């Protein structure tokens, strides 16, 4: 399922401010990119050239850095970023079926974002909460000791939050 | 693959990152190491597509070579194909990244050698691949198609797109490129049985010492396929006496053609005197050819009308510089740019004129040199500058004069150099302080001061375009640059620090050999007014009035490169006899009474002198097509046909004569590379009493443009054509590249014409008009436009004044359609 093109126009004042702040710092490319990711939710491809210009780098080089790290995304992410852990402990405790359940509930494949930009589904190698296996992370919150019912509850919570907006 | 084994400890180390230490004993081919290498190759091959049989890289594939050396036939592993879409729409480079082994050489070439920054590794691990910005195809990126990555790629991932030939060339010969003034060393790959070996592949040569190293540019690398165009002249042609026939010219054999030429030239000479003939030689033909050419003109015929179109395209500037520097700084190796700490580029656009010089400059900047660009239009190079100074209303000369004033005022100049080698410093510095400060220049005050601080005490180099004198303040700008050279002490006998971006391969050599109106071979100025030749504008007038009755044109497509093409055509028509010696049929050959087929660079012997003052000799890589002959051979046979006793049957004979007659070229032919010699007499570095003199600034009046033609148009070279584009427009690849040559307008003008780039504009000057599509260039000042040269039959040249500067024109721009 291909999401629609970016629903929100890029806030250039914010981005320019971030670029100005980092322009003269040394080794500032990654902090700059982190700040943009934080502010906008992703690294808009249109910002790559201004960033490269400010740091006297070639735009292709900036893109190389952005694509190298999984933490940076060139595509807008959903409001809720779900990370289902597929590490060793979680796998042993059944995270594969948790993942399958999440996929069914959200009608999303791994790496996809929903049409309405509410949910993004990702898998990660380890969340570092193995004693709570199987775990999943939604934005900054950890959810552990999951079973299909609990997953439905959690997802329902986030869906309800959206309806309230 | 670089693994080595430490003999003592048995440790296996990566040799590319392990520093050598004394006492180390390293095994490079121990059984363990070979086993590891074999496994690595097996892994590479498991990911590599099994298409060796149809791969263009064929016998040149390094992966195949290493696999063969290590004895790896089948990988024996589970295949892990990594298919990536094939890219082959652009006419230059075919990209099959499925074959990429991630050696990183293409990226290193792009970042370190040519410093463009078009590609970089994207993603990581198994999915890692070189990619452009936004992963667009190469033609939608800033790739300049220099082809350096293609030559360096060890597998078939990157290959030159070749519609005529697949696989490894049969033979490879070294030669020198015949396009711009860099004089890159090439290896020409040829295939096809003799006669008519065709050139199928061009790569940078593997010579240890060359101008270009492992780099090339779009023209040198890919435009060589013009040699195979069907427009090549393959036999002598004589004008058909039947005016109603469809065939304007009939084939003739060499003896008949040469006899006809000799007879007719002698006839004209007898009837109208030697001054009734003109000889137009070529800044693209070799030194030997130009020498022989002007010898025929001056010695055998006895005329003073000798020149080349190169005079208007830059030889004039070279001659002025040589005069003003007393002929003592003729050598300027590009490699010295890498030692310069500050580079001052004045209106220089090497990316489009001499890309390889641009690479040297960019590499220096990458190493930490400061680049000060004084440029109205912010060229590609100026965008990388530490400092970009836009001269604005003040004009370039005034900006440079202010820089000189700042250096003197702050005592940031090389006092010792000035004291030892220069005269007139006191008057000069007085004139600087006394001359009224140009109000427009004071706007740039702080940038000029900052630039002066940057320069203080550093090694400086200066780069300027070959068309500097076309600008209204050109002479003043040149003076200002030379003053700065004196002040910064950058001039040295073997390394002048002065770089003129010669747009043509033998601009300097043709001047040195005397194919110039005011100079004999060796840059000996003709002072006697009687014996001085005319410049091109005067020559065309003389043809129009009938003062000149016959002309011999070698290697110049006058009707494409000169302005006011209709006028030139009418003038040529007025001649009683016209001989044109060239390699492709073009507009100029069509006007000739006799057409003689010459040979292109890769098909003959000769030597060129590049922008550095380096004389490079070359041998043929292929044979000329049909009955065409090397131009020096034709001239030699013409000499014999005219009854002159001297025989020129070998190139060595001509070289010997040049060595004796031209002290500057004493070293010609001794080695494949030699340097021109500086003047001996009056040379401040040799003679104690000779001095460079400063050039006090003279009051400059900025010309007020005709209100009917308010904008200044730069008829600018582009990297995909060489000058007027006679050769490059016949390259299949360049034609497929299909650039429209859009007119570039400044923002205000662009907005006033609708602001969306649709439709066309008509650009009109006093001398002609053209129609082109257009786009915006945000870096242009309000009153300037850029019109690409070479495109569309080089119709842009018609905007310029034949008697003035050929690369600038005052125009008005209006929207049509």
CATH topology of the largest domain in chain B: Rossmann fold
* Name of the top-level CATH class of the largest domain in chain B: Alpha Beta
CATH structural architecture of the largest domain in chain B: 3-Layer(aba) Sandwich
Low-confidence stretches of chain B: none
Return the domain count of chain A: 2
Describe this structure in words.
The complex is a heterodimer of chains A (165) and B (817). With 165 residues, chain A is α+β, with helices and mostly antiparallel strands. Chain A has two domains: 12-68, Arc Repressor Mutant, subunit A (Orthogonal Bundle), CATH 1.10.10; 80-164, 3-Layer(aba) Sandwich (Glutaredoxin). In chain A, 45% of the residues lie in helices and 11% in strands. Chain A has seven helices and four strands; from the N terminus they run ααααβααβββα. In chain A, strand 3 (136-138) and strand 4 (141-143) form a beta hairpin. In chain A, helix 1 (12-22) runs antiparallel to helix 2 (29-40), helix 3 (48-54) crosses helix 4 and helix 6 runs parallel beside helix 7. Chain A starts with 11 loop residues before the first helix and ends with a helix. The mean pLDDT of chain A is 87. By secondary structure, chain B is α/β, with parallel strands linked by helices. Chain B folds into four domains: 1-79, Ubiquitin-like (UB roll) (Roll); 237-242 and 249-316 and 505-675, Rossmann fold (3-Layer(aba) Sandwich); 334-493, Dimethylsulfoxide Reductase, domain 2 (3-Layer(aba) Sandwich); 711-816, Beta Barrel (Barwin-like endoglucanases). Chain B is built from 24 helices and 35 strands. In chain B, the strands form ten sheets. Chain B has a seven-stranded mixed sheet with strand order 12-11-25-24-23-13-14, sandwiched between helices. In chain B, helix 1 packs across helix 2, helix 10 runs parallel beside helix 15 (474-488) and helix 17 (536-545) packs across helix 19 (565-573). Chain B is globular and about 85 Å long. The termini of chain B are far apart. The A-B interface holds A 45, 48-49, 57-61, 63-64, 67-68 and B 111, 116-124, 131-134, 141-142.
């Amino acid at each position: 399922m291909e999401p629609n093109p970016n629903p929100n126009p890029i806030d250039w004042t914010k981005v320019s401010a971030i670029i100005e702040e980092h322009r003269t710092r040394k080794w500032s490319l990654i902090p700059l990119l982190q700040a943009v990711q934080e502010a906008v939710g992703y690294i808009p491809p249109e910002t790559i050239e201004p960033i490269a210009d400010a740091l006297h780098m070639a735009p292709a080089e900036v893109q190389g850095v952005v694509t190298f790290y999984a933490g940076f995304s060139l595509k807008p992410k959903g409001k809720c970023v779900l990370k289902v852990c597929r590490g060793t402990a979680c796998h042993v405790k059944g995270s594969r079926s948790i993942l399958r359940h999440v996929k069914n509930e959200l009608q999303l494949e791994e790496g996809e974002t929903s049409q309405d930009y509410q949910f993004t589904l990702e898998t990660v190698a380890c969340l570092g909460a193995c004693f709570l296996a199987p775990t999943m992370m939604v934005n900054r919150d950890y959810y552990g000791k999951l079973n299909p019912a609990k997953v439905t509850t959690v997802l329902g919570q986030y869906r309800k939050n959206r309806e309230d907006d | 693959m670089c693994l080595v084994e430490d003999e003592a400890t048995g440790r296996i180390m990566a040799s590319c990152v392990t520093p050598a230490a004394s006492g180390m004993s390293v095994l490079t081919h121990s059984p363990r190491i070979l086993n590891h290498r074999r496994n690595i190759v097996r892994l590479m091959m498991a990911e590599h597509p099994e298409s060796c049989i149809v791969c263009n890289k064929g016998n040149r594939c390094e992966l195949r070579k290493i696999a063969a050396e290590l004895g790896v036939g089948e990988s024996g592993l589970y295949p892990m194909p990594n298919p990536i879409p094939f890219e082959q729409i652009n006419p230059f480079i075919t990209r099959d990244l499925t074959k990429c082994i991630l050696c990183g050489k293409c990226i290193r070439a792009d970042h370190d050698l040519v410093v463009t920054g078009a590609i970089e590794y994207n993603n990581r691990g198994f999915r890692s691949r070189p990619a452009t910005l936004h992963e667009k195809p190469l033609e939608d990126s800033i790739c300049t198609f220099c082809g350096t990555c293609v030559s360096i790629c060890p597998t078939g991932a990157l290959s030159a797109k070749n519609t005529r030939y697949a696989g490894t060339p049969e033979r490879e010969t070294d030669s020198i490129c015949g396009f711009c003034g860099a004089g890159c060393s090439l290896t020409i790959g040829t295939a096809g049985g003799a006669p008519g070996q065709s050139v199928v592949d061009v790569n940078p040569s593997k010579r240890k010492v060359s101008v270009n190293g492992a780099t090339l540019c779009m023209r040198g690398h890919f435009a060589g396929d013009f040699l195979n165009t069907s427009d090549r002249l393959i036999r002598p042609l004589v004008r058909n006496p039947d005016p109603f026939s469809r065939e304007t010219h009939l084939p003739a054999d060499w003896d008949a053609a040469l006899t006809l030429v000799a007879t007719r030239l002698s006839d004209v000479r007898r009837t109208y005197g030697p001054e009734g003939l003109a000889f137009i030689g070529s800044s693209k033909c070799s030194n030997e050819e130009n020498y022989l050419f002007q010898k025929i003109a001056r010695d055998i015929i006895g005329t003073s009308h000798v020149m080349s179109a190169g005079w208007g395209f830059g030889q004039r500037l070279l001659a002025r510089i040589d005069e003003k520097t007393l002929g003592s700084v003729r050598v300027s190796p590009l490699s010295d740019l890498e030692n310069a700490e500050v580079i001052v580029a004045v209106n220089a656009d090497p990316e489009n004129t001499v890309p390889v010089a641009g690479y040297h400059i960019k590499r220096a900047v990458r190493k930490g040199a400061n680049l000060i660009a004084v440029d109205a239009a912010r060229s590609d190079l100026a965008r990388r500058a530490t400092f970009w100074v836009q001269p604005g209303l003040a004009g370039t000369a005034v900006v440079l004069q202010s820089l000189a004033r700042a250096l003197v005022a702050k005592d940031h100049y090389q006092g010792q150099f000035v004291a030892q080698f220069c005269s007139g410093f006191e008057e000069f510095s007085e004139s600087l302080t006394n001359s009224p400060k140009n109000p427009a220049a004071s706007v740039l005050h702080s940038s000029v001061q900052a630039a002066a601080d940057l320069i203080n005490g550093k090694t400086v180099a200066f780069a300027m375009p070959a068309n500097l004198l076309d600008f209204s303040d050109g002479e003043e700008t040149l003076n200002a640059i030379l003053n700065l050279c004196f002040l910064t002490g950058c001039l040295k006998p073997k390394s002048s620090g002065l770089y003129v971006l010669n747009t043509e391969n033998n601009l300097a050599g043709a001047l040195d050999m005397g194919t110039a109106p005011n100079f004999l071979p060796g840059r000996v100025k003709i002072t006697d007014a009687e014996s001085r030749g005319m410049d091109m504008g005067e020559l065309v007038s003389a043809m129009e009035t009938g003062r000149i009755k016959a002309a011999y044109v070698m290697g110049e497509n006058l009707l494409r490169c000169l302005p006011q093409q209709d006028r030139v055509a009418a003038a040529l028509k007025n001649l009683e006899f016209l001989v044109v010696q060239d390699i492709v049929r073009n507009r100029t050959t069509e006007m000739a009474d006799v057409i003689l087929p010459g040979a292109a660079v890769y098909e003959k012997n000769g030597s060129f002198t590049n922008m550095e003052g380096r004389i490079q000799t070359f041998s043929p890589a292929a044979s000329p097509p049909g009955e065409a002959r090397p131009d020096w051979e034709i001239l030699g046979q013409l000499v014999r046909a005219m009854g002159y006793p001297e025989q020129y049957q070998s190139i060595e004979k001509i070289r010997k004569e040049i060595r004796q007659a031209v002290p500057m070229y004493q070293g010609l032919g001794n080695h494949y590379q030699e340097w021109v010699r500086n003047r001996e007499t009056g040379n401040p570095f040799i003679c104690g009493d000779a001095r460079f003199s400063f050039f006090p600034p003279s009051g400059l009046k900025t010309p007020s443009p005709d209100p009917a033609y308010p904008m200044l148009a730069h008829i600018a070279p582009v990297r995909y054509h060489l000058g007027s584009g006679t050769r490059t427009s016949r390259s299949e690849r360049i034609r497929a590249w299909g650039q429209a040559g859009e007119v570039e307008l400044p923002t205000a003008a662009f907005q006033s014409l609708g602001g969306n780039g649709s439709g066309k504009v008509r650009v009109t000057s006093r001398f002609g008009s053209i129609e082109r599509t257009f786009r915006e260039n945000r870096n242009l000042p309000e009153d300037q436009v850029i019109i690409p040269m070479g495109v569309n039959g080089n119709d842009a040249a018609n905007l310029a004044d034949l008697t003035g500067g050929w690369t600038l024109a005052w125009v008005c721009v209006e929207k049509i359609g």
